[in-house]
């Protein structure tokens, strides 16, 4: 959070128990702000323990966050948002997979929990900002409006998962790690200098509420088995599955077809149809996406200008950028054309648009247009 005339703010620091959020809270306190640490109890089983770098929101993480707050010298609380998290993130995750889409729970958590439920509670209690350990930057323009930009360390940039934040949320967001030329190694060194023993704690990977990393097993327990067919593009049956929700667009491994394609090339998941419970597979070139339509757009600050414009787009948290032409239609639908075809694009994912380092906004992919299908339709 940048301002021409810095002032002492009441800051609520979301402390996950990891090194990034601990250093972010320490930097906010060192900058002279009145900081209070809070750990969000989101797990339905808070007594569980982490396994290496998997999972978060465990009792271990809560204790780590409390010890970090003690070292920093700030008050610390634990807020129970498990029910809200289950409804807005976990249940949404399950419903999206059941509908044949591929959701991003980290974006949903930022939108619904950290910068909605948490922020609303913080503002009600008189706090000015919520501070997190995300790697991104908020820039204040001369007119007072705010922009979200990529972090200076592109290797750790997390602006993609923050692309759902609107102008109001940006006005109360603080990302101390994104404002400086700092790599992750330097963050760990800084944590060690500050006496924060989480300096060597491994980063949390995968989906936080699926600690063992078995997404298919997690979904199977909640959705049950639903046998169906695996077919090729012509509709020929190649095999069977126990639940279409266990597949994602672009998936290659675990198809269990049992015999190779006629041309000997690998096959990939091309389509997931919950209506007839089929999974369609085919060659890699059939994954080429030339355009898409996205819904529920959210703008980080000022909305884009009317008419088509050129941007770069990011389609997954750790993916690269690709050039696109995008246009907002009727204020509710984003139509995107790729300069070069891209692969592995699935309904339910978020597309985040950038103008240079500035995050323009995001939208949820509803449909995709593929090169192979477009050619067939033209014949």
From TrEMBL:
<keyword id="KW-0808">Transferase</keyword>
<keyword id="KW-0067">ATP-binding</keyword>
<feature type="binding site">
    <location>
        <position position="133"/>
    </location>
    <ligand>
        <name>ATP</name>
    </ligand>
</feature>
<dbReference type="InterPro" id="IPR046884">
    <property type="entry name" value="MnmA-like_central"/>
</dbReference>
<feature type="active site" description="Cysteine persulfide intermediate">
    <location>
        <position position="208"/>
    </location>
</feature>
<feature type="binding site">
    <location>
        <position position="40"/>
    </location>
    <ligand>
        <name>ATP</name>
    </ligand>
</feature>
<comment type="function">
    <text>Catalyzes the 2-thiolation of uridine at the wobble position (U34) of tRNA, leading to the formation of s(2)U34.</text>
</comment>
<keyword id="KW-0963">Cytoplasm</keyword>
<protein>
    <recommendedName>
        <fullName>tRNA-specific 2-thiouridylase MnmA</fullName>
        <ecNumber>2.8.1.13</ecNumber>
    </recommendedName>
</protein>
<dbReference type="Pfam" id="PF20258">
    <property type="entry name" value="tRNA_Me_trans_C"/>
</dbReference>
<dbReference type="InterPro" id="IPR004506">
    <property type="entry name" value="MnmA-like"/>
</dbReference>
<dbReference type="Pfam" id="PF20259">
    <property type="entry name" value="tRNA_Me_trans_M"/>
</dbReference>
<feature type="site" description="Interaction with tRNA">
    <location>
        <position position="134"/>
    </location>
</feature>
<dbReference type="InterPro" id="IPR046885">
    <property type="entry name" value="MnmA-like_C"/>
</dbReference>
<feature type="binding site">
    <location>
        <begin position="14"/>
        <end position="21"/>
    </location>
    <ligand>
        <name>ATP</name>
    </ligand>
</feature>
<keyword id="KW-0819">tRNA processing</keyword>
<dbReference type="InterPro" id="IPR014729">
    <property type="entry name" value="Rossmann-like_a/b/a_fold"/>
</dbReference>
<feature type="domain" description="tRNA-specific 2-thiouridylase MnmA-like C-terminal">
    <location>
        <begin position="290"/>
        <end position="365"/>
    </location>
</feature>
<feature type="site" description="Interaction with tRNA">
    <location>
        <position position="349"/>
    </location>
</feature>
<feature type="domain" description="tRNA-specific 2-thiouridylase MnmA-like central">
    <location>
        <begin position="217"/>
        <end position="282"/>
    </location>
</feature>
<comment type="similarity">
    <text>Belongs to the MnmA/TRMU family.</text>
</comment>
<dbReference type="GO" id="GO:0103016">
    <property type="term" value="F:tRNA-uridine 2-sulfurtransferase activity"/>
</dbReference>
<dbReference type="InterPro" id="IPR023382">
    <property type="entry name" value="MnmA-like_central_sf"/>
</dbReference>
<keyword id="KW-0547">Nucleotide-binding</keyword>
<feature type="region of interest" description="Interaction with tRNA">
    <location>
        <begin position="156"/>
        <end position="158"/>
    </location>
</feature>
<keyword id="KW-1015">Disulfide bond</keyword>
<keyword id="KW-0694">RNA-binding</keyword>
<feature type="active site" description="Nucleophile">
    <location>
        <position position="109"/>
    </location>
</feature>
<keyword id="KW-0820">tRNA-binding</keyword>
<dbReference type="Pfam" id="PF03054">
    <property type="entry name" value="tRNA_Me_trans"/>
</dbReference>
